[in-house]
Write a structure and sequence with these properties.
The protein is mostly helical. The protein contains 1 helix and no strands.
Length: 43
């Protein structure tokens, strides 16, 4: 029982980390696109 709950916990942590990383990547992409667009419009 302890082993399964431990695995479940680890699995949940991995999902949370993956979601956080995905959110960070999306945010960085949007940020980069905005910066690129601003730079492009200035030239």
């Amino acid at each position: 029982m302890w082993i399964t709950s431990n695995l479940q916990h680890r699995y949940t942590e991995d999902i949370i980390k993956a979601k956080v990383i995905r959110i960070e990547i999306n945010w960085k992409d949007k940020h980069l696109q905005k910066n690129l667009w601003n730079t492009y419009m200035k030239n």
